[in-house]
Amino acid sequence: MAAPKLRFKEFDNQWDKIKINDQAQTVTSGSRDWAQYYSESGDKFIRMTNLVRDGIYLDLSDLKFVQLPKDSNEGKRTSLKFGDILISITAELGKLGWIPEGLGTAYINQHTALVRMKDSVDSKFIAYSLSTEKYNNKLNSLNDSGAKAGLNLGTIRNFELIVPPKEEQTKIASFLSVVDEKISQLTQKHALLSQYKQGMMQKLFSQQLRFKADDGNEFGEWNKVLLGDCVDILTNGLSLDQNMNGNGFKVTRIETISNFNIDLSRVGYVDTQSDISSYRLEIGDILFSNINSIAHIGKVVYIDKDYDIYHGMNLLRIQFKKNLDKKFMFYELSQKTFKQHFESIANKAVNQASINQTALKKTELCAPCLEEQIKIANFLSAIDQKIEVVAQQIEQAKTWKKGLLQQMFV
Fold first, then answer.
1. What is the pLDDT of residue 141?
2. Is residue 5 a part of any domain in this protein?
3. Residues 237, 150 within the same domain
4. CA separation for the pair 103, 341 (Å, rounded)
């Protein structure tokens, strides 16, 4: 008997194999030429960028709008309804979206399949089924167009799932909805903490908000200094050939800091007998992206622990003088105003931009006395720790959900 490993105890019916078309009212796709209807406001236009890979809920952070003529036949055919399932059928195959109640009038284009299920099944359960690793991988494997990725509607119609009776479907879908809501709440909390941090940084570095000394006295004025006068080390990294096979010493690459931290899954390696100890990164070092696309130029990462990693190419290593708090200087450089400054002084080419050390050294900084620097750095570090705790909770919840999806479906 087909049954999942993890199951609500009140159910013991067998799960049966179905084809989507057996339980679907409609399987269709959107139409072309929507650009002529784009508008600043109006009805929602759901594109492939709004579909997701690791869930079923639409990502509406980048949403376009359309205004259709009232007599549009295409509008009637591709208008979305509560419970519809969307599947990307070109390029990134198998991205999903389940249409919630209250979305309002919305449409799709030819890159998306619309699956509207009969009342005999729970469409949310079907969407969750398609989001599981097993079925999503299967969707991705059913490429109908050779080198050019694509799924035709016949393939969608004939796609097979193993499902329980509707009552159990609804119970599973409701349970997973609660899990998704928890992840959503944590994600929102993470976003709010990040916004709070940005707001406090703006107030602190504009001196709108000031700390006082431990004895209650006011701190003195901030001093303007050039970055070049504040550093002991400002250097390029190892120029040795790198390998991706894990042979030798770990070294940083541009990608290592792309997420504003040290990502050890995105490092290179150098296999050498030479003494490279002077390139080993130390706690308090700052890595600065000086050769990158303009969107990533000026990114900074603080080395907060011993990663046993060496300084590689295309990133500058900055060590500030001992009379400056290194974490404070990192926070100052990570402000949006400095990101904009670095973009403005970069030498721009077609595919990438660069900042030379001479130009970087002329960057004007503003710093208070060491005691106030430490207070500011500690305050912002405490917020960062809270953000990191929530980020870990999000990852734990996602891992738990992934395990549920593996065990609650057949």
1. 85
2. no
3. no
4. 40
